[in-house]
Amino acid sequence: MSVMVQAENVYKSFGHVEVLKGINLEVATGEVFCLVGPSGSGKSTFLRCINHLEKVNAGRLSVDGQLVGYRQKGDKLYELKDSEVARQRREIGMVFQRFNLFPHMTALENVMEAPVQVKGESKATARERAVKLLDRVGLGDKAGNYPTQLSGGQQQRVAIARALAMEPKLMLFDEPTSALDPELVGDVLDVMRGLAEDGMTMIVVTHEMGFAREVGDSLVFMDEGVVVESGHPRDVLTNPQHDRTKSFLSKVL
Ligand code: ADP
Ligand code: MG
């Protein structure tokens, strides 16, 4: 089993507020790793550390065997140059609660943008892939639509296609369905389920326990910056061991 993400004793504070207090976890390559917990427990902060949007204060965080943001020589750590950070970042796709599509670009242009601008890919190649990706997320007929001409669920599927266009080895989802009307949630989860079936490594922060149970390979329950409990989603969800997990699940299940 190869490891895609490893966190060893990861700490993160904002000023005097300690948000991550020694996170230890491991995400295997190809697995769907669900991260659940109450609001404010540090889930987003943890994802943001993986994707270089925040820097950890202590501990080791690595993706695919490489330290995030650092190189190790002997027992010394050196910060990576901006270009090296950019290279690490482009291998990770992230989907947020709010879709953040470029409003002045069509769905197709949104999906083409990063490969052309960041990777210097030709427009023809980027367009060909974008068309396929929009098809894959069920929006083949919406390529020419602007974000305002799409529902929230459709925008979120474009956002997923846009992240996939960079051919990431890891996808991070931060409550991707929380901002959607209930009837639009299913289509987004179906796209994520398809990605999982294709073997994508995914960390999914979600309150959709049905998705976690059916699609997840592992589930971690986090509270107040620590991992309280982890295991197979079915085990944790049906037989939680800790009071904090039980109390949380009684509210979301
Ligand atoms: P979750 O995603 O589990 O709801 P977050 O990671 O968003 O939790 O937040 C955890 C805690 O960290 C919260 O108390 C939040 O207010 C704080 N926090 C997050 N980002 C910042 C920031 N940039 N500056 C200060 N505090 C922050
Ligand atoms: Mg969050």
Automatic annotation (TrEMBL):
Keywords: ATP-binding, Nucleotide-binding, Transport. The keyword Transport applies. Its EC number is 7.4.2.1. Residues 5-249 form the ABC transporter domain. It catalyses: a polar amino acid(out) + ATP + H2O = a polar amino acid(in) + ADP + phosphate + H(+). It is an enzyme of class 7 (translocase). The keyword Signal does not apply. Gene3D superfamilies: P-loop containing nucleotide triphosphate hydrolases. GO terms for molecular function: ATP binding; ATP hydrolysis activity; ATPase-coupled polar amino acid-transporter activity. It comes from the Bacteria. InterPro entries: AAA+_ATPase, ABC_ATPase_HisP-typ, ABC_transporter-like_ATP-bd, ABC_transporter-like_CS, MetN_ABC_transporter-like, P-loop_NTPase. Pfam families: ABC_tran. Belongs to the ABC transporter superfamily. This is ABC-type polar-amino-acid transporter. It comes from Streptomyces candidus. The lineage of its organism: Bacteria, Bacillati, Actinomycetota, Actinomycetes, Kitasatosporales.
